[in-house]
Amino acid sequence: MHVFIHQTHHSIADFKGIEEYLYSNLNKESHGLHIFPELFLTGYPLQDLCLQKPFIDKYHRLLERLTSKLPKLIDQEKCCLLIGGIKYNLNERSLPISIQNVVYQVGLGKKLDDIYTKQLLPNYDIFDEKKYFKRGTDSFIGEFFGKKVGILICEDMWASSFHEWDPVHDLMEKKKKLPKGKLDLTVNLSGSPFHINKHQKRVNRAKEISHLLNCPFAYSNRVGAEDEVIFDGGSFVIDGDKVLVEAKRFTTDLIQWEYSSENGPYTEIKKQDTSQTWEGLFNSRLELSTTPPTLEPLSDDQCMEILQALTLGIQDYAQKNQIKKFSIALSGGIDSSLALTILVLSLKEKQDVEVLFMPGQKTPQKHYELAKQLCSNLKVPMVNIPIKFLNSTALNLYNQHFSDRLSEYSENSLQARLRSLVLYTRTNQFNSMALNTSNKSEIAIGYSTIYGDSVGSISLLGDLYKTEIYEVAKFINKKFNDLIPPEIISQEPISVQKSSTVDTKSIPHYKILDAILEGILNYRYSEEDLINKGFNQEDVEKVLNLYQNSEYKRGQFCPILKVSVKSFGFGYRIPISKSKQLYTGDKNEP
Amino acid sequence: MHVFIHQTHHSIADFKGIEEYLYSNLNKESHGLHIFPELFLTGYPLQDLCLQKPFIDKYHRLLERLTSKLPKLIDQEKCCLLIGGIKYNLNERSLPISIQNVVYQVGLGKKLDDIYTKQLLPNYDIFDEKKYFKRGTDSFIGEFFGKKVGILICEDMWASSFHEWDPVHDLMEKKKKLPKGKLDLTVNLSGSPFHINKHQKRVNRAKEISHLLNCPFAYSNRVGAEDEVIFDGGSFVIDGDKVLVEAKRFTTDLIQWEYSSENGPYTEIKKQDTSQTWEGLFNSRLELSTTPPTLEPLSDDQCMEILQALTLGIQDYAQKNQIKKFSIALSGGIDSSLALTILVLSLKEKQDVEVLFMPGQKTPQKHYELAKQLCSNLKVPMVNIPIKFLNSTALNLYNQHFSDRLSEYSENSLQARLRSLVLYTRTNQFNSMALNTSNKSEIAIGYSTIYGDSVGSISLLGDLYKTEIYEVAKFINKKFNDLIPPEIISQEPISVQKSSTVDTKSIPHYKILDAILEGILNYRYSEEDLINKGFNQEDVEKVLNLYQNSEYKRGQFCPILKVSVKSFGFGYRIPISKSKQLYTGDKNEP
Predict the structure, then answer these.
(1) Domain interval for residue B311
(2) pLDDT for the residue numbered A70
(3) Positions of E strands within A300-446
(4) What is the pTM of this model?
(5) ipTM reported for the complex, 2 dp
(6) Do both B160 and B23 map to the same domain?
């Protein structure tokens, strides 16, 4: 049996593209078992789209066309397709009563019939599958070309203590009842989003399952970015501890593998510890053996992964929204410099970027020189637009009408907003896309001006802590021969006092800040936990206060390309209005 | 048996306030059955907060204190409390393995014991309860003061075809096994958000359940607004067709009722039709018998409901975020005029509002006069800040650096952003809250400038179509003696061409626009459906295109006070990146 893994990428609801892919990649000579990703037929994540009539109607017309054409396209005795899609149960108004996330089979006696329904519906972080899908209640082992094949969909392989059932365990039970107690192959149709280290976790878990079920494990993942969610591909076939074949990551691919009945060896293993939380499955980045804990540095491989993920993320967003031109405000600081560098490295033919340098009253000449040098290294033009006069005109207008003296914070905010005004006038003129250049540390403590430096269509670096920004910048310089002027990396962070109600000059050094933030976001630590881990109480209180008071800014942020287990964005949901005594204070509670 | 319904309001995680309420409202003389709202002990909706250690730790300390104090506070033989809260099952790291939405009982032999777990977890629109909560699997009838009482939590009363089980039906079955087959009372602890007509639906459904179970139905709802979600209270006791007692709406209340064993009469009724979708349970506003359909006009009662809801929403947001001062940009048009009027009507002591009128090059003198008149009627000062010079300075700066001629659209956008710049400089200075004044029709078609007129901390009118804006304005003028200068209502809408990529001058009249939008949002109609209902094809295509291309603007919008079944905001989740052929076009699909 020949196994094909189709690592594909289509826009959500791109039914035409999906159909064309099938017609141009399959024919009478396509023999063997073809495995497609989860929800190949629709795209993912669909969110509310899957509840809307335009989507449902067009999807059903696609299914009709495929049902009539696909069986004729292939040799039904020698080819079998396993395709991820959704299955509707509609009411009389053609609106869904229930929706299932299923595997369709074409060939070997089936026209386009659903054979399996996903059992574990992820519902944490960015996932809301229980909102839309009804779970399957039974595992499935099919027979294809004389082989017994267990089928899973994505999360089905990740049972933990959160789940009330474990599809892998079910397959182990069902396997015992097979002739000779033997399963020949397990396949998993996936739509598994990227974050740092996730791919290695998948490979490890696949090995474990291969040992548990005593058979190879074929994993088909989707690729491509949907707004903030990045799918990294990296499909594979694993047998025992061996990776037999592996697809490229961050790009479409088609891999093949000839099934051999000589598999193994398999060792008897205990089942993975499933008592942990979901986040525990995927290493968090805090080194807990030091006091206070520190962020583990990114390895070169991790930096490379991040770079590839961000490149894919920004380009898919641009292409899916038909953007050919980018606009970015460059300050000469590390964040905007790194964002611009990654953007330029990602540029495709016929795309260009416009860089605006907008010095204010206090901008040092040095920043201009560094920005200019960077643009020269990157071979992109830079437009220098001093905003001093516009700024003083705005200040004069204010002073004509109001007698209060503008605070330094108000002045800085005004200046940040003037820059976004110029930036967005350019994007309006050319329908270009403004890139947001904020980092995760800033977003976490609200250290940015709403409608000012926080603007943009999508945030490239919003899921990287300041520490990580430096690490990725250094990695790029190692790989691309000091593409970013080293002084941009070595200079002190540009820290104008930007936040709204507090003195941000006294926030801890970003290395401590980032470690505290990781504790809050990923370990969900309380003030007490953080102090017990060895952080300074004053630092902890300061950070927690800034964090809790900046929820309203995060609420209006653009999509943030997700590269960590816990990013701000769609998977982060905290109410703005809540007790001010929740994170800090109220120590004398009765 | 005396029944007390506590219609309460506390901030999310305001454990101190929650505790104080109990201690100051209960004592040895508090005899009878006291019913509190769903999740009284925590607040609602909690979203990810319920997963965080700071929340979990403080909540558990609250439970400990209540367990030791509450039983001593009351006469345990004569008083019984039914309190909504959550129950954690934690792992060794004190993080939740599962969370249940439960009723705690205090008194009559219980200290603070959970007796019932919510069975139906709403998971549509703004609700994500399956993300956080584990459902209960059994109905419950308890005995209190010799009475058999069935207990439900909120959604439990709303089973439809979407649900796999029906707690009301379960109670009917359990009732049959009781002595004489008699249930004495049903109670429902609720956290049911407001939208137009919802209260009447609740009353109707309660009557139905009272008839089904042959006993009175006591309903306790929370009140108060949490960001965009408004809880309207309106708790009641219903017996058969009679409303025995009813709490105020949109404010806290405590109602009482002496249980009488002379209840009824009850009529045998068929069970409510449950084949419809959830939205179908709550009337949508489209009059479908006309061709094309039109929005049903709002009644005076509905306008009053909306006014009360918005007043509560804006004030709770302000108070929970410690805001004493509001800022608003007034244009002389209907939207900002209505927003200002409602804001001023809602003002509490020690609050004030600053109104900025910022005329541009083309602003007619008439708008100044109307704005001035409105502020005079409302007795609030208005600051007149012409932005002409600032505007031309910005234009000059642009023309100095770029050779392209600014489009009318870019110019309008720039002007809108200069207004938000001045507005936000004021909010920065005084930590005031800027009110967003966009309406639902605008938001739906992207007819606003991002970072310009779309800014604000919270949107007061963002869930009202333009049609409804006029209706509410007229209602206010009827009730408050032409508070809004009638000419503001009678003048043509101020329609600068504001949208980004399309000619919005040719969008249909707002009455047609709003009906199409209601079809898209509430009925989830496709292009074909809309044309079949009698809308003009060109109008439909134009609106669908504008709608689908403005998702990115909605993504960065502030919270929108929700008054309809389907508002933009947290319960509206559509990906930005998706096939451009989904809503329109692709008519020649194979």
Answers:
(1) 298-499
(2) 97
(3) 325-330, 352-357, 382-384, 433-436
(4) 0.96
(5) 0.95
(6) yes
